């Protein structure tokens, strides 16, 4: 029996439209643009991951995604300018954070290295910071009655005693408890 070698006369099936409701399709696209995986989107929407891929493969969705990417790419020059400004900031912490974030994003340094504590300020800055902390603690103690740590209470008593002695020798009858710095 001879076989018929002619091509099949059956037409290719028409691609059918998706049965997924439009709001679900919109949420799938939004999830994709937000960077979620197809599996995460499918789980959230309670649909099959293949359906997510089918939705994302639709020509109008591909066009929408391309437009969104183009908009994001057009923001890159502005982002670079902001980063340049942060890297040249007068504030050391801002410069360090910007540089660290940049290097981390570019994978120049391993993630574990970026979890470090910022460097301590110079000695002059450190003294200034200690004075500010002490002022704050004493002010909170005066205003709200917040207890001072024992060593700070001891320093406060010494300073009050020293001012008391100085004011007695100078003839001032009302010595200040703690000088305003």
CA radius of gyration is 34 Å
Low-confidence spans: 177-181
The 3D shape can be described as elongated
Structural class: mainly alpha
Reading the helices and strands in chain order gives: HHHHHHHH
The helix tally amounts to 8
Please give the number of β-strands: 0
Overall average pLDDT:
77
N-to-C CA distance: 110 Å
Percent range for helical residues?
A: 55-70%
Strand content: under 5%
Main pleated sheet = none
**Count of spatially separate domains:** 3
Topology, pairings included?
Blueprint lengths: L21 H12 L4 H8 L3 H9 L1 H16 L1 H12 L4 H14 L17 H22 L5 H21 L11
Structural description of this entry:
- The protein is an all-alpha fold and 181 residues long.
- It has 3 domains: 22-74; 76-114, no CATH class; 123-170, no CATH class.
- The chain contains 8 helices and no strands.
- It has helices spanning 22-33, 38-45, 49-57, 59-74, 76-87, 92-105, 123-144, 150-170.
- Helix 1 runs antiparallel to helix 2 and helix 2 (38-45) crosses helix 3.
- The protein is elongated, with a radius of gyration of 34 Å.
- The termini are far apart.
- The model is unreliable at 177-181 (pLDDT under 50).
